[in-house]
Amino acid sequence: MQLTGELLIGQHAIKGTRDPVQAINPATGETLEPVYNGGSSNEVEQACALAWQAFDQYRETSQEARAVFLETVAEEIEAIGDALVERAVAETGLPEGRIQGERGRTCGQLRLFARVVRDGEWLDVRVDQAMPDRQPMPRTDLRQRHIGLGPVVVFGASNFPLAFSVAGGDTASALAAGCPVIVKAHGAHPGTSELVGRAIQKAVARCNLPEGVFSLLYGSGRDVGTALVGDKRIKAAGFTGSRNGGMALWKVAQSRAEPIPFYAEMSSINPVFPLPEALKARGREMGKAFVGSLNMGAGQFCTNPGLVIAIKGEALETFKQAATEALADANAQTMLTPGISDAYQEGVQRLSQHNGVTELGRGPTGEGAYTCQAGLYTASAQTFLADTELQDEVFGATSLIVECVDSDELLAVTEHLEGQLTATLQMDDADLESARPLVRILERKAGRILVNGWPTGVEVSDAMVHGGPFPATSDGRTTSVGTAAIKRFLRPVCYQNLPDALRPEALRDANPCQLNRLVDGKRES
Ligand code: NAP
């Protein structure tokens, strides 16, 4: 498919008129055609108007029709074939195998949400039937279901050009909830965005849906992104990126005449706790495996283990030595963008120039201009406790080991942590009693607690939580990965005493949608 550099507004393709965005191949530094001119307030207005027009019809599509639509999007993405992989590799510097895997995950995610839509659990139907003879007061008929919030803006993430971009988890869950979606493309992969955007556009047409169900805009975040989040027809937004960007847009969402939910996934350093007995038993092996997780994808994962917290001693020295040795072989991979590479260098410099921080080792330098040289640093617990900036995310393959004198200090450091997406315990059976108080604190700090694994690699499933208290996300009650992500874009409506003919199908007496409903406190099936 020939890329045109056009904005996709409903079924139309339009040349933008504002500042151009052009992809750079971070592996070669080459600028990639075509030019993507940004959208203006006119295009923002058109996309929002179409999305609003589409909302009432789209949210009332049958479960089957909406599920088929999500499956059709997956089919259309697969139909792009190798062109999608080639373009995504060129725009991100990520290896082909990673992009192929991500395409599988993206399509799998869309099909998973199709299953969710068909199941109907998300409607959470509750029926309290009328009790006209109840004493001392009769009860009227009450029925509840969930509906989509309204049009949703999605900010494509730079680090998942497929699985968290145009047709990624935010888009799939919002479409599943019955919300039209307008994507603000990430400037790092506009061509990949266009290819996927056109696939969704085709799926909308094939499924005879109103065109405003999907639009894709290019342009700067400060311009197009802010205008979209500020538009009164937009009712929620999903974002993955930096803390500064997320907070700037969150403020826009909260200062509107009608504030809206802004689901931002921003910053997490994902502490790992190698506990004493596990360290003694397998400190070497653990140190090596830790570096494998740290350097995966040049460390550009929101779940990258940027912090290790452990008790000082011989066993920790073994872990440190093994990790430092492994680091020497950790190949320097290309980072996603020149901006991310610059931010990484600055972060590493801050650590290395810190008085209380010691460098343990660096990985090899790479060939290209934007390669990520891995790094490992150490600091005492007292240094870490005294400087909150040591908790700032360094997006890339660098980690800080915080050394504690005893278990009380380890718990104090844990209590001091900001909100996290994940927290990992490396433990043996003999560590059970040390783990118990730690888990109690970590439940308050993190969205996911793991034992004897590594935080990178996020399953897309029913039980997954990819969220966590601030600043991991702007709303710790939610997840952006897994089927529960749909809840972010839904709200309950109660229908009191409506005649059956006026009720939505899901609430009718005959239960034509065959839903598993809660009727007078009991499950119907
Ligand atoms: P970013 O700079 O936050 O950009 C993400 C999106 O937000 C882009 O569309 C951007 O538009 C927009 N945006 C940024 N600042 C904005 C503002 N002040 N007002 C309105 N819109 C704004 O993130 P990035 O480009 O992906 O990477 C930069 C840094 O983000 C990384 O170095 C890393 O620290 C962090 N990051 C974290 C994660 C994570 O999961 N924790 C993932 C990816 C990135 P423009 O491109 O036009 O600015």
UniProtKB/TrEMBL annotation:
It holds the Pfam family Aldedh. It comes from the Bacteria. The keyword Repeat does not apply. The keyword Transit peptide does not apply. Residues 19-468 form the Aldehyde dehydrogenase domain. Keywords: Oxidoreductase. InterPro entries: Ald_DH/histidinol_DH (IPR016161), Ald_DH_C (IPR016163), Ald_DH_N (IPR016162), Aldehyde_DH_dom (IPR015590), Aldehyde_DH_Superfamily (IPR050740), ALDH_KGSADH (IPR044151). It catalyses: 2,5-dioxopentanoate + NADP(+) + H2O = 2-oxoglutarate + NADPH + 2 H(+); 2,5-dioxopentanoate + NAD(+) + H2O = 2-oxoglutarate + NADH + 2 H(+). One of its GO terms (molecular function) is 2,5-dioxovalerate dehydrogenase (NADP+) activity. Its EC number is 1.2.1.26. Belongs to the aldehyde dehydrogenase family. This is 2,5-dioxovalerate dehydrogenase.
